[in-house]
Design a protein that fits this description.
Elements lengths: L12 H4 L3 H10 L5 E7 L5 E7 H11 L1 E4 L26 E14 L5 E9 L10 H13 L3 E15 L5 H4 L20 H16 L6 E4 L5 E5 L5 H20 L3 E4 L12 E9 L2 E2 L10 H13 L4 H4 L21 E3 L6 E4 L6 E4 L8 H17 L25 H10 L4 H4 L2 H19 L4 H7 L4
Parallel strand pairs: 1-5, 12-13
Antiparallel strand pairs: 1-2, 3-4, 4-5, 6-8, 6-9, 6-10, 7-8, 10-11, 10-14, 13-14
Helix pairs in contact: 2-3, 4-10, 6-7, 8-10
Length: about 475
C-alpha cells in the first residue's frame, strides 16, 4: 500500500472520474461509446442497472434520470424479494425509485466494447435520496466529517481467488468444487501460471483504460489468490472503483473460462480480505502526522473509536455467515479487537511514519459491500474524535493471544446480537432507517442458511448418521 497523498495535491471525485457528461458526449459523437450502463450498488455490493443507447442517455436520461424497481435494495444475494423492508414489499406493490446519474462518476469500460458506465443516486418519490442506498449511507458519513472540516482519504486492498469455471458441473452434481488456477503458495511471487499472468495483464490494462489504474498487484498465499491495491483517494471513488474491479474481473475471466470469487472464505483455511487504509485531513493538514516520532492525539482518538464501535457494526463489514469463517487464529485475519504498530495480527494496524502515518483496518472480508464498510469505519472514527476517546495499550506481540481484547463476533448471529446490545445505539452513528434495513437483511441471511443442508453436512453425515 502506498503512503497517503499530500492533501494539498489530492483531487476530488470529479477530477478522478471522466469529467462529466461533456466528455461522454464527445465519446458518443465520435462513435467510441454507443452504450451507457446506468448503475447503482445493491445491498451486496454489486452493480445493478439498465443499458441505454448512448444518444438516448445523453438526450433524455442524463438530465431527466431513469427509474428502477426499488426491490433492488430489498433482496438477498439470489435477488429474491424479502419481506420486512419499509422501502419495498408486496404490501407496497414494489414500486419504482428514480435514478439520478452522477456526472462525477462516469467511466469508459475498456472491458466492454464501446460502453461507458455511469453511477446513479437512488431517489425516492419525495425527491429525496433513498436513505438505505449504500452510496447514500456513505455520503451521510462523508457529510458528517465535512461538517467538522475533515476529509477522509482511503485506499483499498482487495483479495480474490481466481478459479477455473466449473459452473457447468453444478447442474449434474448440485455442488461447486472450486479449482484455483494454481496449486502453489505464490505469495509475493513474480512468476505465475500463464493463465493467471494473462488474466492479470488484461485486468491491469482494462482498469487503467477505465481511468482507475491499479497501484500494485501481488499474488497471495492461497492457491490462485490475488491482491489488488488502488491508490489513496476519495472514499466514494474508492468504493466505486471496487465495484468496477469486480465487474471487470468477472468480465475478463469469462472470456477465458475463469471465475474470480470474492467470498471471504471460499475454501476451508482460505481467507480473502478487503483491507482499508485510512487517513484524515483537516484544513489541508494530515491529522495523523507524527511530531517527533509521537503519534498525535487525533490518531489515538480514531483508533479508540474504531475499537469501541466496530465490534457492534460487524454485519456491515462481515455481512454473511461465510464472512466469519475467515476469522481464524493463526491466519492473517484478526480474531479480536486489538491494535498495534506494524502488527498484522491486529484488527487495527498503524502503518507508516511522519506525515504518512495511517491506519489499516484489517477486519472487512472480500465479500463486504465497500460503501457500508467505509460508512461503518468513518462513523467509528468520528465517534472517537467527537468523544476524544483513548485506546488501550497497543499490542506488541501476537494479538491472537492478547488477553482482554474483545473477540470478533464468531457468526452473523453474534454480530446481530452485538449490534442490539451496544451501549451506543447504532442509530446515533448511522440512520435509524439504515440500521433497521440492514439488520432485517441480516436476519433473512441467517434464516436462509439455518435450514439449508450443506455439502459439508452431507459428507460428514450421509453414511454415518
Amino acid at each position: 500500500m502506498s503512503q497517503p497523498p499530500n492533501p494539498s495535491t489530492t483531487t476530488g471525485p470529479s477530477q478522478q472520474a471522466t469529467s462529466g457528461f461533456e466528455d461522454l458526449r464527445l465519446l458518443v459523437e465520435s462513435g467510441t461509446v454507443t452504450t451507457v450502463l446506468l448503475a447503482v450498488p445493491d445491498m451486496q455490493g454489486r452493480l445493478k442497472g439498465k443499458r441505454f443507447g448512448a444518444a438516448h442517455f445523453l438526450d433524455r436520461v442524463a438530465a431527466g434520470g431513469a427509474d428502477m424497481c426499488a426491490y433492488v435494495f430489498a433482496t438477498d444475494v439470489d435477488m429474491r424479494p424479502l419481506d420486512g423492508f419499509a422501502l419495498a414489499s408486496f404490501d407496497t406493490g414494489y414500486g419504482d425509485m428514480g435514478l439520478l446519474p452522477d456526472p462525477d462518476a462516469v467511466y469508459q469500460l475498456a472491458w466492454m466494447p464501446r460502453t461507458a458506465l455511469v453511477f446513479a443516486e437512488a431517489i425516492g418519490h419525495d425527491g429525496q435520496p433513498v436513505a438505505v442506498a449504500p452510496r447514500q449511507i456513505l455520503w451521510e458519513q462523508l457529510s458528517c466529517l465535512a461538517s467538522r472540516g475533515i476529509v477522509a482519504q482511503v485506499g483499498l486492498e482487495t483479495e480474490f481467488v481466481l478459479c477455473h469455471d466449473n459452473y457447468a458441473d453444478v447442474a449434474e452434481t448440485g455442488s461447486i468444487e472450486i479449482e484455483p488456477v494454481d496449486t502453489d503458495n505464490r505469495d509475493y511471487s513474480l512468476d505465475y501460471p500463464r493463465v493467471m499472468d494473462r488474466f492479470l495483464q488484461d485486468l491491469e490494462e482494462c482498469l487503467a483504460g477505465a481511468g482507475r489504474p491499479v497501484e500494485a498487484i501481488k499474488t497471495e498465499s492461497a492457491p490462485g489468490q490475488v491482491e489488488i491495491t488502488f491508490p489513496y483517494g476519495d472514499p466514494m471513488a474508492a468504493a466505486d472503483t471496487h465495484l468496477l474491479l469486480k465487474h471487470a474481473a468477472r468480465a475478463i475471466g469469462g472470456h477465458s473460462n475463469l471465475v474470480p470469487t470474492f467470498m471471504a472464505a471460499p475454501a476451508t483455511g482460505v481467507g480473502s480480505g478487503c483491507h482499508i487504509h485510512l487517513s484524515l485531513v483537516h484544513d489541508g493538514v494530515p491529522l495523523f502526522a507524527e511530531t517527533g516520532g509521537r503519534m498525535p492525539e487525533a490518531a489515538r482518538h480514531v483508533i479508540a473509536g474504531l475499537l469501541d464501535v466496530l465490534p457492534h457494526l460487524a454485519l456491515l463489514y462481515a455481512p454473511t455467515p461465510n464472512s466469519y469463517k475467515r476469522f481464524v487464529p493463526g491466519t492473517f485475519a484478526p480474531v479480536n479487537f486489538a491494535w498495534g504498530r506494524d502488527n498484522r495480527t491486529c484488527a487495527i494496524r498503524v502503518v507508516g511514519r511522519g506525515d504518512n502515518l495511517h491506519l489499516e483496518i484489517r477486519l472487512p472480508g472480500a465479500d463486504a459491500n465497500p460503501y457500508l464498510t467505509l460508512a461503518a469505519v468513518l462513523a467509528a472514527a468520528r465517534h472517537g474524535l467527537d468523544h476524544k476517546l483513548d485506546p488501550p495499550h497497543p499490542c506488541v506481540t501476537n494479538a491472537f493471544e492478547e488477553a482482554g481484547a474483545p473477540p470478533v463476533p464468531g457468526s452473523l448471529e453474534e454480530a446481530l446480537a452485538a449490534l442490539h446490545s451496544s451501549p451506543l445505539p447504532a442509530s446515533d452513528l448511522l440512520t435509524p432507517a439504515g440500521v433497521e434495513h440492514y439488520t432485517n437483511a441480516a436476519r433473512h441471511e441467517i434464516a436462509a442458511h439455518r435450514t439449508t443442508v450443506s455439502d459439508h453436512e452431507l459428507r460428514r453425515g450421509f453414511t454415518t448418521a
